[in-house]
Amino acid sequence: MSSYSIKDLEQVTGIKAHTIRIWEQRYNFLQPSRTETNIRSYSSEELKTILNVSLLNKYGFKISHIDKMSAEQIEEKILSLNQIDAIRERVVNVLIKEMVSLNMHAFEKQLDLYSGQKGVDKTITEIVFPFLERVGILWMTNHINPAQEHLATNLLRQKIILGIERLPAVSEHNKSVILFMPEGEYHEIGLLFVYFLLKQEGIYVNYLGANVPMKDLVYLTAVKKPNYVFCHLTSPSKVFKIDRFLTQIGQVSNTTPVMLSGLFMKDYKGKLSENIAVKKSLAEVIQLIQAI
């Protein structure tokens, strides 16, 4: 059975840990267990509960009122939210809840329903990426069952590849980018999402994918002479040395800009070579793609 820390709940719901503690003291909807050292531990059911409570609270319902609602009333109120942002957040929350329940049939059904209404491209940008941003930290910290991660990511991988295939073909003679992840990094979803965004903007992608030896990247960069080399790092292997990697990639080509993104790089504060830059948010990645 999966268990989550208060920091996990903060990451997934956007509710500060301090606020969650206050809610626990004043209301009845959260009753975490505690370790021998008095550290809170939350179950999957409590994760689902706080997803519901935080969504209703964000869109105008008082916590004191939510606390008195039955589970059926809470679901009814959630379904009645009609703001565009609320609908998107509700769908993302449903995906999280179905993932932790290992109900992948409902998980895929929710994706397909949104895709049927809004299209594959909007499903990827409005639902899939926000979902990945919110649960990614759980995968990095091993606070989620590997089975949950594998089932969810493989379904999302299929949806993103479908979105990529449905975009118009791009001429190799246009601007191009090499996409790769280093040896020991297998979390491909973020890189595929960047592939989707690049192709959507009419930029040709040389996709090397996951677990790429540095010599292969050096060879392809020399042959293809891309406008950019792009690497997305989510959770490399334990033997991965970031400083060594940055030195190597800085030497791939002195004339080719290298862009790094992903959760692993979000808090990096070390020194970078002149041809290397880090994009720490989706907005920065999109801004870069639009400027290529």
Q: What tags apply to this protein structure?
A:
Rossmann fold; globular; 13 helices; five-stranded parallel beta sheet; 2 domains
Written overview of the protein:
By secondary structure, the chain is α/β, with parallel strands linked by helices. The chain has 2 domains: 3-164, Multidrug-efflux Transporter Regulator, Chain: A, Domain 2 (Orthogonal Bundle); 169-291, Rossmann fold (3-Layer(aba) Sandwich), CATH 3.40.50. Helix content is 56%, strand content 12%. The radius of gyration is 21 Å and the shape is globular. The relative contact order is 0.08.
Write the layout of secondary structure elements.
Layout: E1 3-4, H1 6-13, H2 17-26, E2 33-34, E3 40-43, H3 44-58, H4 63-67, H5 71-80, H6 84-100, H7 104-118, H8 120-140, H9 146-166, E4 176-182, H10 189-200, E5 204-212, H11 214-224, E6 228-232, H12 242-250, E7 258-261, E8 276-278, H13 282-291
Parallel strand pairs: 4-5, 4-6, 6-7, 7-8
Antiparallel strand pairs: 1-3, 2-3
Helix pairs in contact: 1-8, 3-5, 3-6, 6-7, 6-8, 7-8, 8-9, 9-10
